Amino acid sequence: MDEHERSAVGSGAPRWWRNGPAWWNRWDERERSGRWPWLSTLLLTVFVLAGSTFAAHVQEGERASLTPFARLLLVVASVALLWRLRYPVVVVFITAAAAMVYLGAGYPYGPVFLAVALACFSAVVAGHRSAAWAALGMLWAGHVLVAHWLYRWLPPAGDPAASWDEEIVIAAWTVAIVAVSELARTRREQWARERAERAQAARRRADEERLRIARELHDVLAHSISVINVQAGVGLALLDTDPEQARTALTTIKAASKEALGEVRQVLGTLRAPGDAPRAPAPGLDRLPELVEQAAGAGLTVEVTGDPPRLAPGTDLAAFRIVQEALTNVVRHSGSRHARVRLAHDGGALRLRIDDDGPATGAEAGGGGNGLAGMRERAAALGGTIEAGPRGDGGFRVLAVLPSKVKEEDR
Q1: Do the Cβ atoms of 37 and 78 come closer than 8 Å?
Q2: Which residue of 143, 190, 281, 375 is most buried, as measured by CB atoms within 10 A?
Q3: At 244, which helix (H) or strand (E)?
Q4: Are 111 and 48 in contact (CB under 8 A)?
Q5: CA-to-CA distance for 272 and 264, rounded, in angstroms?
Q6: Could you report the per-residue pLDDT of 372-392, keeping only the tens digit for each?
Q7: How far is CA 224 from the centre of its chain?
């Protein structure tokens, strides 16, 4: 379960109300793909024709009987909905005009309003609100004009003016269509924003995970390969003159490569099985003696002062990697064979200081120069800071300040 799903549990509103119902998403996909809504249009056409026939029987004597022209108007208003996804503005005016002529001719009230409602809904949801309102206003104004003025010149002869109660009903029906369409448009825009935000958050999490893995691989490989590079040089130099020392160098190379492979497998394991707990605990400052021993194998003497406090796992890992990268840089770039690591914990912050006496050699033992950037990213992710630069006496210093964030249950 990811972060978004966890936050959704027990949050009150059902998932379909937050994300949109499945049928709505399918409607969006159909609109984007340009497919024709044949089935819904056919069903609506059949329903409008059948419902209007039933309405004609119920309103017999009150409204005009259905004629072939009336049925043609019903078919035009319904079949036009086949183009509602591609040309919503044209369709809403066609359905409104057909309904206006149908009602103006005195034919029975009935399901023809459904065709207008669906056309208006499609236009509003597609963003053509003004066109939908104008079409509904045209329909209502045309009905008022015919029912209260033009009826004198239209068949049947002697037909009285329509009741204003009917106009109120039609006006209320028009307002209801607009209200429902606007609500649907608002929810659709909200769902679209939420989907975009979720996609952006997923991309951000993927980028953060990519950077995290890149930092881990860089720190593991840079340190181990630096040790291997130094020991390989020692082994080659002493292979003929001091075979025993060359054997020691090869033993160090084997141990460093084995450790590097283990840590690389752990990092890559998170890619193969995301969300699973790591099989081995992440390294922390408790492994600082191992780091000192590895540095000694590369010919670097490290003096450590201060005891590491109890830290949250993320802070502990970041502190370890910062020290590891700083010592790796000493091995690769400094002429000094001695480094000092000082740990201090005060005011809720862990202070790490790594010094060497220089001078810089300018030598490269692999790597792409991303070590300092990786250290800064680790510190920034925890709300800490990194300062790195040459000292006045020719050496180099890395100073890291990390919030300790000691967990209560660890005390």
Answers
A1: no
A2: 375
A3: helix 243-272
A4: yes
A5: 13
A6: 787 888 888 888 899 988 888
A7: 36
What whole-number distance in Å separates Cα of residue 249 and Cα of residue 231? Answer: 5
Are the beta carbons of 403 and 384 closer than 8 angstroms?
Answer: yes
DSSP lists the bridge partners of residue 399 as 353, 387
Q: What is the DSSP string of 197-240?
A: HHHHHHHHHHHHHHHHHHHHHHHHHHHHHHHHHHHHHHHHHHTT
For 32-43, write each residue's pLDDT tens digit.
445 788 898 999
Query: What tokens does 198 get?
Result: 């979720």
CB atoms within 10 A of CB 134: 16
Amino acid identity for residue 163 in this structure: S
Structure tokens at 68: 């072939």
Strand order in the sheet with 338-346: 301-305, 338-346, 349-356, 396-403, 385-390
What is the token pair recorded at 377? 């990213």
Helices (H), 126-163: 129-148
CA-based end-to-end distance of the chain: 29
pTM of the predicted model as reported, rounded to 2 decimal places: 0.46
Cβ atoms 340, 354 nearer than 8 A:
yes
What's the CA gap between 342 and 304, in Å, rounded? 6
Cα(257)–Cα(251) distance, rounded to whole angstroms?
10
What pLDDT is recorded for position 25? Answer: 52
